[in-house]
């Protein structure tokens, strides 16, 4: 027979014990005697805040309702700790190097110290955790009532609401006392953690005791127990694979994402190596916690009266067998589960609320630069945390009052899990993927949270509570595919799995899609590199540039946050490190980054960044920092693009050089060929001249006058040929060098042709050619160098005379105007020039030497081409005219004058 | 040793000069001007000595020399090469292909005569 007063007395005594333990732990920590306070064992036991009253009482109820499915809640974290140990280690390392104070701080810091994200995650955490706290209050309150109903003589339970209020107030007091003693997250909460470790032991011992009692005390041994289990309805519960997978996934995520779990797992972690122990010891703890759940449920179902709440079999089974001691221990286990969860959750939430909501609001209320002059920030932060703790518990209490504590315990637990799991895409993406952006994270979070609220949280209050029954069954405005529990027409799913699937899928999809389409800001990239490559860069990124005279302001501000002693020590050490005697260090980027990290331990990354920003007034990402993120994929791509461009440029240059070289080689060959040709053209006439002059010298006197005339004639002819060749060479050389001057004057095409024909007619010694002209069309006014043009005409007529092989050779000359140009064609009736040779006839020495060609060096057409180019016209071979045909084009007088 | 010379050359004035010089010395001079069928002319006329220009219309003197040297019946016929280019690589080429002697234009009449006498005598 345990009276209410006894229960309360035991509770109080237990709480006093916790206070003492916490107090001693704080004292020892304060003296630096940390020792076992921060051992892997304490760390592992502190992780047991995962096992709340929901797990302690609710798991048995869950087993009684749904058989083995409760195991998923333990399997998820086990898989996470064993299989994802490396990811947790990364998270812990990030938490240490970046001085992360909460999960909201982590997300906010990762995405460029965005306070928007901090606020979002904080709000989500509060909304997701409040029902959970209410749940703990409810379980404590209900456990009192179990004692009252189990008692035959009965005592009336005092007002449930009053009990809950007292519990809430007591927890708030404890949390405030030990959770907000000082500010820096990295050195606080020894007391709380130790008390929680003690509670973890109590929980385990209590549950094991009840289990042992049930198996050996009630059932009568393991064999009998197994038979009773086989006979009970639990053995027949259906196995639902979809729910199993979903529940395991969601509870695996919860171990990271629940604010209280993040608090003990990352923030309170003293040493990364503790994680290695926890990775096997915590699953072992969970295993022991779950060992006797099924036996207790089976015995409870068979011994307790129908309609009794299976959630409290842990209490009612020992009570009904008259084992009040065991029941009392069990009651303390449940009490421990509830209180440890509430305390840690309240600390975690108050840190978030204070750092991401209260402090930014306070900062924005202050005018610029006020961080250094207004009231004591340190007290403000502590006060805001204390109020936040009270607020969080008050919220939990009101939630408890409103919902009336009617639902099954396990249900709200899973709903809460799903809600906080929404941070997972942003969190995992943030620590493994550089490309994740703030926009993606924010939209993903909001979308996931809204879908969660719409499909799971709000419907969980039951029809017509918040959502109308019509909305639940028909969808909003009768839109069927928007029904909260069958989104997009996907019905038939378990509501929890359905909500989890849609909220996380849409969340992750939005996160990835927006991250892929957007581009992170420099600060985000910097932070992303720090987070993703936390094992490579151990120093935190710097985001500040060198400043001048703000060191004093910074000290004033830091004193208010860190306390005068610590702040002065920090500044003094920094100054010494810089080799300065004074207390004020230079505000180098390194120092600012260090200070920001220290402050962020107290007020969170975003707030610390904003406070320093107010004083220093500039935040920048330096070239050095960008170099630090140079291994970022995007950056790499840029570099590789640049390299590619460079290499392309190089190969282009190489190609140009090769081309230039080829050209030079070709020019050199051309030059050799040219010299060799010139040599040939000069030596040939010289040979005749020398030979005949020797002949004349040796035997001139014996020769007949005819012979003498003939031989001296040859000498004369060859001498002229030589002179002409030299003239041509000089002419061409001058023209090719562009040194020739054009003496433009008015002229008429007809008279120029007349002159040319006359000149060739008189010049001609060998076969005559008949020249056919069209004098009417030749009446074209020209403004050009008439002498040069005549030279071209004479050359063409002479060629026809020399090479036209027709029996009655004829040369037709015709002129035609077209636009501003006149075209003059010279067409003979010979066999023409073979197609393969047409391309080369304008080259130097390109004499088609099929025939005896004495008197020509093969320079004529090359000269013509040069002349026509100088006169702004052209000369080309005209194929398909029945004989050799050349077309000369040049501008008429008006066009030539206009061009000048 | 006979005194029949075949002169393969395309410049009419040079042909006339060489013909005059050699005839005066008692040589019988035959001439041919086209490169393309110069080898056939050599086979046909079976001269005791060939004077061969390098730059001929239609075919290079070097090609003709190669044909002559490849023909066993003509293997012993001395060939005097003439060229107006006078580059050393031409001289090397001629030596390689089996020319008996190589002369660069312009030459003195005495030189040509001496070369012809020397080649015919050997």
CATH class label of chain B: Alpha Beta
The CATH level-2 architecture of chain B is identified as 3-Layer(aba) Sandwich
CATH topology type of chain B:
Rossmann fold
Can you tell me the residue ranges of chain B where pLDDT is under 50 for at least 5 consecutive residues? none
Average predicted local confidence, pLDDT of chain B: 86
User: Structural class from helices and strands of chain A?
Assistant: mainly alpha
Tell me the domain tally of chain A. 5
Strand order of the largest sheet of chain B: 2-1-3-4-5
Question: How would you characterize the overall build of this protein?
Answer:
The complex is a heterodimer of chains A (900) and B (122). In chain A, 67% of the residues lie in helices and 4% in strands. Chain A has a 5-stranded mixed β-sheet. In chain A, strands 1-3 form a two-stranded antiparallel sheet. Chain A is built from 35 helices and 7 strands. The termini of chain A are far apart. Chain A folds into 5 domains: 4-408, Sodium/glucose cotransporter (Up-down Bundle); 437-517, no CATH class; 539-623, no CATH class; 633-734, Signal transduction histidine kinase, dimerisation/phosphotransfer (DHp) domain (Helix Hairpins, Orthogonal Bundle), CATH 1.10.287; 741-899, Heat Shock Protein 90 (2-Layer Sandwich), CATH 3.30.565. Chain A has 900 residues and is mainly alpha-helical. Chain A is elongated. Chain B is α/β, with parallel strands linked by helices and 122 residues long. Chain B has one domain: Response regulator (Rossmann fold), CATH 3.40.50. Chain B has helices spanning 12-24, 38-45, 61-70, 88-97, 109-121; strands at 4-8, 28-32, 49-53, 79-83, 101-104. In chain B, β4, α4 (88-97) and β5 (101-104) form a beta-alpha-beta unit. Chain B is globular, with a radius of gyration of 13 Å. The mean pLDDT of chain B is 86. Chain A binds chain B through residues 676, 679-680, 683-692, 694-695, 698-699, 714, 717-718, 849-852, 854, and chain B through 10-14, 16-18, 20-21, 24, 33, 55, 57-58, 84-87, 104-110.
């Amino acid at each position: 027979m345990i009276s209410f007063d006894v229960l309360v007395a035991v509770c109080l005594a237990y709480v006093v014990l916790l206070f003492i333990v916490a107090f001693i732990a704080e004292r020892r920590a304060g003296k630096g005697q940390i020792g076992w306070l921060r051992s892997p064992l304490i760390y592992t036991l502190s992780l047991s805040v995962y096992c709340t009253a929901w797990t302690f009482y609710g798991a048995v109820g869950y087993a009684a309702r749904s058989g083995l499915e409760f195991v998923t809640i333990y399997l998820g974290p086990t898989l996470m700790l064993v299989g994802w140990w490396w990811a947790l280690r990364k998270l812990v390392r990030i938490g240490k190097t970046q001085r992360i104070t909460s999960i909201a701080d982590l997300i906010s810091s990762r995405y460029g110290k965005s306070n928007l994200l901090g606020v979002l995650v904080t709000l989500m955490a509060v909304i997701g955790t409040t029902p959970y706290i209410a749940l703990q209050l409810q379980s404590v309150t209900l456990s009192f009532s179990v004692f009252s109903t189990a008692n035959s003589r009965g005592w009336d339970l005092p007002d449930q609401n009053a009990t809950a209020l007292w519990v809430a107030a007591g927890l708030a007091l404890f949390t405030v006392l030990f959770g907000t003693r000082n500010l820096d997250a990295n050195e606080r909460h020894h007391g709380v953690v130790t008390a929680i470790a003690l509670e973890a032991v109590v929980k385990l011992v209590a549950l094991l005791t009840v289990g042992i009692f049930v198996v050996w005390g009630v059932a009568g041994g393991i064999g009998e127990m197994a038979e009773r289990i086989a006979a009970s309805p639990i053995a027949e519960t259906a196995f639902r694979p979809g729910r199993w997978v979903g529940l395991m996934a969601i509870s695996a995520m919860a171990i990271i994402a629940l604010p209280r779990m993040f608090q003990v797992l990352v923030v309170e972690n003293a040493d990364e190596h503790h994680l290695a122990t926890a990775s096997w010891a915590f699953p072992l703890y969970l295993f022991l916690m779950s060992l006797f759940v099924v036996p207790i449920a089976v015995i409870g179902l068979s011994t307790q009266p129908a309609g009794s709440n299976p959630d409290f079999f842990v209490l009612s089974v020992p009570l009904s067998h008259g084992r009040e001691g065991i029941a009392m221990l069990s009651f303390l286990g449940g009490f421990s589960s509830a209180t440890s969860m509430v305390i840690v959750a309240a600390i975690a939430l108050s840190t978030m609320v204070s750092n991401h909501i209260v402090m930014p609001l306070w900062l924005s209320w202050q005018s610029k630069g006020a961080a250094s002059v207004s009231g004591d920030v340190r007290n403000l932060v502590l006060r805001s945390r204390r109020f936040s703790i009270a607020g969080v518990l008050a919220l939990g209490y009101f939630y408890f009052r409103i919902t009336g504590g009617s639902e099954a315990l396990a249900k709200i637990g899973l709903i809460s899990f799903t809600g906080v799991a929404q941070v997972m895409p942003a969190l995992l993406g943030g620590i493994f993927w550089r490309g994740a952006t703030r926009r993606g994270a924010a939209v993903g979070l909001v979308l996931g949270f809204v879908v969660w609220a719409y499909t799971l949280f709000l419907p969980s209050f039951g029809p017509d509570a918040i959502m109308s029954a019509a909305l639940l069954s028909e969808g909003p405005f009768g839109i069927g595919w928007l029904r909260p529990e069958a989104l997009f027409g996907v019905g038939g799913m378990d509501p929890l799995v359905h909500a989890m699937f849609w909220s996380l899928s849409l969340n992750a999809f939005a996160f990835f899609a927006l991250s892929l389409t957007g581009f992170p800001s420099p600060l985000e990239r910097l932070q992303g590199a720090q987070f993703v490559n936390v094992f490579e860069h151990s120093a935190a990124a710097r985001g500040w540039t060198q400043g001048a005279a703000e060191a004093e302001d910074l000290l004033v501000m830091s004193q208010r946050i860190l306390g005068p002693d610590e702040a002065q020590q920090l500044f003094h050490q920094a100054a010494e490190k810089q080799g300065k005697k004074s207390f004020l260090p230079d505000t180098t980027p390194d120092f600012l980054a260090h200070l920001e990290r220290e402050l962020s331990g107290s007020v969170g990354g975003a707030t610390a960044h904003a406070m320093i920003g107010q004083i220093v007034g500039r935040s920048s990402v330096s070239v050095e920092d960008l170099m630090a993120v140079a291994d970022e994929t995007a950056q790499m791509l840029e570099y590789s693009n640049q390299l590619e461009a460079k290499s392309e440029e190089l190969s282009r240059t190489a190609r140009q050089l090769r081309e230039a070289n080829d050209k030079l080689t070709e020019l050199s060959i051309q030059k050799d060929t040219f010299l060799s040709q010139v040599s040939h053209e000069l030596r040939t006439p010289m040979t005749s001249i020398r030979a005949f002059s020797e002949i004349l010298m040796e035997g001139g006197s014996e020769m007949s006058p005819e012979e003498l005339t003939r031989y001296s004639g040859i000498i004369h002819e060859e001498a002229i040929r030589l002179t002409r060749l030299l003239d041509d060479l000089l002419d061409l050389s001058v023209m090719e060098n562009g040194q020739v001057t054009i003496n433009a004057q008015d002229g008429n095409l007809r008279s120029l042709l007349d002159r040319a024909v006359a000149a060739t007619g008189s010049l001609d010694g060998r076969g005559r050619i008949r020249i056919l002209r069209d004098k009417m069309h030749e009446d074209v006014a020209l403004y050009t160098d008439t002498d040069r043009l005549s030279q071209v005409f004479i050359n063409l007529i002479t060629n026809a005379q020399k090479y036209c092989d027709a029996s009655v050779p004829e040369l037709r000359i015709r002129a035609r105007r077209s636009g501003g140009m006149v075209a003059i064609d010279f067409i003979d009736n010979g066999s023409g020039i073979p197609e393969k040779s047409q391309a080369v006839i304008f080259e130097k020495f390109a004499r088609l030497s099929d025939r005896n060609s004495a008197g020509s060096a093969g320079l004529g057409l090359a000269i013509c081409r040069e002349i026509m180019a100088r006169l702004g016209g052209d000369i080309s071979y005209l194929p398909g005219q029945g004989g050799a045909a050349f077309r000369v084009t040049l501008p008429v007088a008006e066009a030539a004058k206009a061009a000048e | 040793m006979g005194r029949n010379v075949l002169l393969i050359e395309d410049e009419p004035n040079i042909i006339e000069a060489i013909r005059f010089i050699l005839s005066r010395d008692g040589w019988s001079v035959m001439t041919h001007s086209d490169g393309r069928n110069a080898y056939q002319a050599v086979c046909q006329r079976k001269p005791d000595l060939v004077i061969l220009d390098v730059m001929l219309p239609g075919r290079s003197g070097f090609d003709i020399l190669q044909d002559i040297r490849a023909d066993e019946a003509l293997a012993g016929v001395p060939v005097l090469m003439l060229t107006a280019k006078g580059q050393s690589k031409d001289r090397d080429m001629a030596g390689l292909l089996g020319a008996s002697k190589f002369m660069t234009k312009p030459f003195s009449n005495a030189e040509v005569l001496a070369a012809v006498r020397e080649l015919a005598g050997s």
